[in-house]
Design a protein that fits this description.
The structure holds two protein chains of two kinds.
Chain A (H helix, E strand, L loop, with lengths): L4 E6 L2 E7 L5 H22 L7 H5 L4 E4 L4 H14 L9 H7 L19 H4 E4 L2 E4 L11 H15 L5 E5 L2 E5 L4 E7 L2 E11 L3 E6 L25 E6 L2 H10 L5 H5 L5 E5 L5 E3 L5 E3 L4
Antiparallel strand pairs in A: 1-2, 2-6, 3-5, 4-5, 6-7, 7-10, 8-9, 9-14, 10-11, 11-12, 12-13
Helix pairs in contact in A: 1-6, 3-7, 6-7
Chain B lengths: L9 H17 L3 E2 L7 H4 L20 H5 L11 E11 L2 E12 L2 E9 L4 H14 L6 E2 L7 E3 L6 H15 L1
Antiparallel strand pairs in B: 1-2, 2-3, 3-4
Classes of the chains: A alpha+beta, B alpha+beta.
């Protein structure tokens, strides 16, 4: 019997899943397979970097699409964020990111002048389990997809009777049961350093920084209104009850004030400004390192 | 969930920062020493706002390059720079003192002293001053006891490969 740790690469990032429950070797191997298969099926539906994905198909042909069972949570979250942020968090940012160079081939060269993304109601008619693509568009779930996938893997573990575990996918982390984890907050300018630490217990943390995945004048977030990558925030972290929520909020905070978002969602946050001053919510109980 | 500041004021801080950036943009600062007036405007470490400060296109691919430019191409002289920011509040003229310590093109220390005369302005400036400093600093990961690290360093492999390729091409 062992308490296994799974370590593998998937959806372009590194995953580490620590399980504190004891499993037989057989159970362990079967569990790892189930996790990998689940991640693969998610990626095949929602990755705009895959030729064979559902969203790539949607970018080519209009029509009625039958969505996978996990789509409802994803679409309902995106719709709510779309409404709350006035369209600034939008799955329709895919074509903008792609035109800017963040395309399926990672050309990182802007291919054409950017234009504002299409509006939700002009393109999408969402009636679960169907999605009608009224126009073709490249949907991008980069703001919440990874977070949601972490939640999906967590519920898979729960279904297998596992109750104490931690899932870390490239720095977005969910933890259940056991002692609180001490999470280092990576210096947005130097990945060998941390600027503070925060305890995480039965919740999820997601981070976003404007100076990773940088090309030309862009980083991985582009504001649909200005068509530029926001540079007023160096990096930020969000703690929430689900990883999809933490992940989406970590993008939304680049566009909308924490005060506005807190009217709609429960979360704690920390924002690092470009001069390394920070703003935190009351409940973000981080220990920060400073000169003063 | 509430902001740690007393009364919903990260917006206010944001506003004040924007005001300060505007002031810089308008070039109304009087330097007590004499670097180019553009010193703050161009420094990548200073708060900038996409709406008020023109973002100069940086061919730079990693922040490390920004932090450690090759010797001899530093844009700014190391030193301590002080400036008074003057602006007109709805109640009349106000000012704030800002001091920056610059080393290797990075702002390593920044302090603000309120010089406001009106209660409202004093209030706003105090919020700004309080949150302007202290600034967080990075500590090496291996000297801090941690379970995990959260950040965005683990970027998609395809992306990183592309960056490496582009860098190689740029050098060729």
């Amino acid at each position: 019997m062992i308490a296994p740790t799974f370590s593998f690469d998937a959806i372009g990032t590194h995953w580490q899943i620590e399980i504190n429950d004891f499993l037989s070797e057989e159970e362990r191997d079967s569990l790892l397979n189930k996790i990998k298969e689940r991640i693969e099926s998610f990626d095949k539906a929602y990755s705009r970097f895959r030729e064979d994905s559902l969203v790539t198909e949607m970018s080519r042909n209009t029509g009625v699409y039958r969505l996978p069972v996990d789509a409802d949570m994803l679409f309902s979250h995106y719709k709510k964020f779309y409404d709350v942020t006035d369209g600034r968090v939008t799955p329709l940012i895919g074509d903008v990111l792609s035109d800017a160079g963040y395309d399926a081939k990672y050309s990182l060269i802007q291919s054409k002048p950017l234009t504002a993304p299409l509006l939700w109601d002009d393109v999408l008619e969402y009636q679960y389990p169907n999605l009608i693509m009224k126009k073709t568009a490249m949907l991008d779930f980069g703001a919440g997809g990874k977070g949601y996938l972490i939640d999906i893997v967590a519920s898979l573990l729960e279904k297998e009777g596992i109750s104490t575990y931690c899932i870390d996918a490239g720095g977005d982390i969910l933890t259940r049961g056991g002692q609180p984890l001490i999470i280092g907050l990576e210096d947005p300018n130097d990945s060998s350093k941390v600027i503070g630490k925060v305890a995480l217990s039965n919740q999820s943390i997601a981070g976003s920084a404007g100076n990773r995945r940088v090309w030309g004048e862009f980083h991985h977030i582009i504001d649909p209104v200005t068509l530029q990558s926001p540079k007023h925030i160096l990096g930020l972290w969000v703690i929430a009850d689900t990883t999809i929520l933490a992940d989406l909020l970590a993008t939304a905070l680049f566009f909308i004030s924490p005060e506005e978002l807190s009217k709609q969602f429960d979360f704690e946050f920390m924002i690092v400004n470009p001069d390394y001053s920070v703003i935190t919510s009351d409940g973000f109980s981080a220990e920060l390192f400073s000169d003063a | 969930m509430k902001s740690r500041e007393n009364s919903g004021n990260s917006t206010v801080i944001g506003l004040v920062i924007v005001v300060v950036v505007l002031l810089i943009g308008a070039g109304v600062w009087n330097y007590s020493r004499k670097p180019e007036v553009t010193i703050i405007e161009e420094n990548p470490s200073f708060p900038s706002s996409s709406t008020t400060t023109p973002i100069t296109e940086t061919p730079t691919i990693t922040p490390a390059d920004v932090k450690n430019p090759p010797v001899g191409v530093l844009k700014y002289k190391d030193g301590t720079y002080s400036a008074v920011g003057n602006y007109v509040s709805p109640g009349g003229a106000e000012s704030i003192d800002i001091t920056l310590v610059i080393k290797d093109d990075n702002i390593i220390e920044a302090t603000a002293v309120s010089k406001a005369e009106r209660p409202q302005s004093k209030n706003f400036q105090n919020i700004f001053v309080k949150n302007f400093s202290p600034l967080v600093i990075g500590k090496k990961i291996d000297v801090v006891n941690l379970s995990r690290v959260s950040g965005s360093s683990l970027t998609p492999k395809g992306f990183n490969d592309a960056v490496i390729k582009i860098k190689a091409e740029a050098k060729a």
